[in-house]
Amino acid sequence: MYIIDVAETGNMQVQDKFVQKIPRTVWVLGFVSLLTDISSEMINSVLPLFLVSVLGANIWTVGIIEGIAEATASILKVFSGVLSDYLGHRKGLAVFGYGLSTFVKPLFAVATSPTGVLIARFGDRIGKGIRVAPRDALVADSTNAEVRGAAYGLRQSLDTIGAFLGPLAAFALMTASENNFRLVFWLALIPGFFAVALLTVGVREPTSETQENRSNPLQWEALRSLGQGYWVLVAVALLFNLGNSSNAFLLLRAEQTGISASLIPLTLMVMNIAYSFSAYPIGILSDRIGKFGLLLGGFFLYALVYLGFAFVQTPWQVWGLFALYGLHLGMSKGLLLALVANSIPANLRGTAFGFFNLAIGLALLPASLLAGGLWQTLGAEATFITGSLFAIAAVLLLVINRKKYLQI
């Protein structure tokens, strides 16, 4: 049975190989993610409409703002992860990152031009870039290998609950206030503030090898010590995400099959519900039977779902595919992080998660450009078939190197 442990990893009482406790730190980080996602998604779910309908921006401007913001977050993940290893402390960087993302939110409410929104979005993504690698490393620092699948799955589940509660809150507020965007932006500050407060008082950073064996994580010897198994996982993530284009293409496909515009946002809610309800149980299962086979299954499921989107004909099929897509996320995202955590030295966890997240971030732009180009020239089917083939290529790379992961 998985229950909250008020002590950190060093004080965990191991009942047997499979029955262990999830440390309090992981639960707190999960609820911090939940509150932060409510805050962020309250804004993100209405921000494009605010830019276009209130500030008079065009679609190209919206794309520039999002591109700059996401590129910033991807690059900073490496530096914050390296810094957390070099300093031997992670909590302070995580608090600063979450705090920055929270306290720039009033800038959205007072923005009078697209430039003002860009500044706010830039600050928000800087905060995300700073917090992600130290946070993922904190989960690894606070757990042992036997419960990491469950730990990362739990944090992903709680995070995703926030991802669909945020748009729901924004919808309710917009309805009640007759589309008062600025009120939504101001109120989004509240869950963000509680997230920072919870992280500040609720997380005790465990003593780890990070604090005892500090060195320059960017030295060649340090990077080599991450090991071939880790760099293969980075390559797998990069390859897979080159075919994992923006969810916008899934929404466009849903519209093509006849789902009305008012219902299309609910398809993402179905996806997130399936994701949130599957990630934690699958994480627990992975600690019992192994992570590698489940991860392969998640990638294969993605390949099948994308093939389904290529040939889908009716709305009910689309709803089912979105649910299966959420299941794929539950089977892959947390397990990939757990495999990374189990493959690397403890004193380089921040650096490892930084480069891993950078690889994923760098793949997102070319993935969407490729998907858009294929859609424009060859049709929607080509976009989704190509995404499926990238997933199969990632599976083959994992299978070739399977001996590195079967025991972790």
What's the β-strand tally? 2
N-to-C order of helices and strands: EEHHHHHHHHHHHHHHHHHH
Return the structural class. Answer: mainly alpha
Helix content: over 70%
Output the CATH class name.
Mainly Alpha
Biggest sheet architecture: 2 strands, parallel
What's the architecture in CATH terms? Up-down Bundle
Whole-number mean pLDDT? 84
Strand content: under 5%
* Stretches with pLDDT under 50, minimum 5 residues: 1-19
Name the CATH superfamily assignment.
MFS general substrate transporter like domains
What's the CATH topology label? Growth Hormone, Chain: A
Instruction: Give the number of domains.
Output: 1
How far apart are the first and last residues' alpha carbons, in Å?
21 Å
Assign an overall shape.
globular
Give the count of helical stretches: 18
Structure description:
This protein is mainly α and 408 residues long. It has one domain: MFS general substrate transporter like domains (Growth Hormone, Chain: A, Up-down Bundle). The protein is built from 18 helices and two strands. Helix 15 packs antiparallel against helix 16 (315-343) and helix 15 runs antiparallel to helix 18. The two termini are 21 Å apart.
Brief account:
With 408 residues, this protein is an all-alpha fold. Helix content is 78%, strand content 1%. The N terminus is likely disordered.
Features:
408 residues; Growth Hormone, Chain: A; 78% helix; disordered N terminus; two-stranded parallel sheet; mainly alpha
